Amino acid sequence: MRYLDKLSITVVLGSIITLSGIQSAAALSFIEREPTQTSQTTPDSFDNYYSQGLTSLDQQEDTQSELDTYSQAIKREPNNPTAYYNRGVTQSELGNFLDAIEDYSQAITLNPDYMAAYYNRANARHQLRDFQGAIDDYTQAISLNPNYAVVYNNRGLTRLRLGDFQGAVEDYTLAINLNPKDATVFSNRGAALNELGDAEAAIEDYTQAILLNPNYAPAYYNRGVLRNQLGDAQASLRDFQQAADLAQEQGNNALYEKVQSVMTTL
């Protein structure tokens, strides 16, 4: 299995006082490198179409072509959970989240212990704002394999969406215990701690995120917001300036404009 992308969350404080929205990247996906069943390889065989799908994926060819080849593979071996799973990955990449959920669900029906299918179905449900359904699937994925930090991170995000800030902090802490080098999770926990009214602990998490990733512009911005709230004007101004410089260098125009707007009010 290999990772395509991680659903990582950056929470940016919307003003000096409140949180705005949550910016989320693409969902992490797992891709099985071998079919779970084998058959004789002929131009019309399952293995041939399955291999074509993986080749298209590796070469980053058109995702519609990948979709077609996995569909052909499923026609030939309709009881192979990996083919449904990988077609679900492709559907997710195309933004077809309802179709992806259907494929992940079929993979789970065929293999009830398919941890990655529960995880990716949770991500698809999150994209469709079915947050409780996503939490249920993340929880099932954790019950099957409790050692993936990213699953706790994503469940924490979903709990944050639902206003369960303490639950989010607990999930982010579990993620950090498994992977203490992930700046994004510290930043996410900082946002949840801020929602619980613990600005000082949130600042500590943003500081740790910056230590792990000195180019993490949103963490500087969020720390600047909280430092300003606590009356440390000089430190907040330094954070805002650093956030603005990094955002401009990284082409993050939305954050750059947000920081510039805040700085004009100081």
Structural key phrases:
266 residues; mainly alpha; Serine Threonine Protein Phosphatase 5, Tetratricopeptide repeat; two-stranded antiparallel sheet; 13 helices; elongated
Mean pLDDT: 80
Order of helices and strands: EEEEHHHHHHHHHHHHH
Cα distance, first to last residue? 50 Å
Give the strand order, joined by hyphens, for the main sheet: 1-4
- The rounded Rg comes to 21 Å
Detail the poorly predicted runs: 1-9, 11-60
CATH topology grouping: Serine Threonine Protein Phosphatase 5, Tetratricopeptide repeat
Helix coverage percent: 55-70%
Q: If classified by CATH, what would the architecture be?
A: Alpha Horseshoe
**In DSSP terms, counting alpha (H) and pi (I) runs of 4 or more, how many helices?**
13
* Number of distinct beta strands: 4
CATH class descriptor name = Mainly Alpha
Oligomer: single chain
Envelope shape: elongated
Q: By helix and strand content, what is the structural category? A: mainly alpha
Write structural notes for this entry.
By secondary structure, the chain is mainly α. It has one domain: Alpha Horseshoe (Serine Threonine Protein Phosphatase 5, Tetratricopeptide repeat). The protein contains 13 helices and four strands. A two-stranded antiparallel ribbon has the order 1-4. Strand 2 (9-13) and strand 3 form a beta hairpin. Helix 1 packs antiparallel against helix 2 (63-76), helix 2 (63-76) packs antiparallel against helix 3 (81-93) and helix 10 packs antiparallel against helix 11 (217-229). It starts with a strand and ends with a helix.
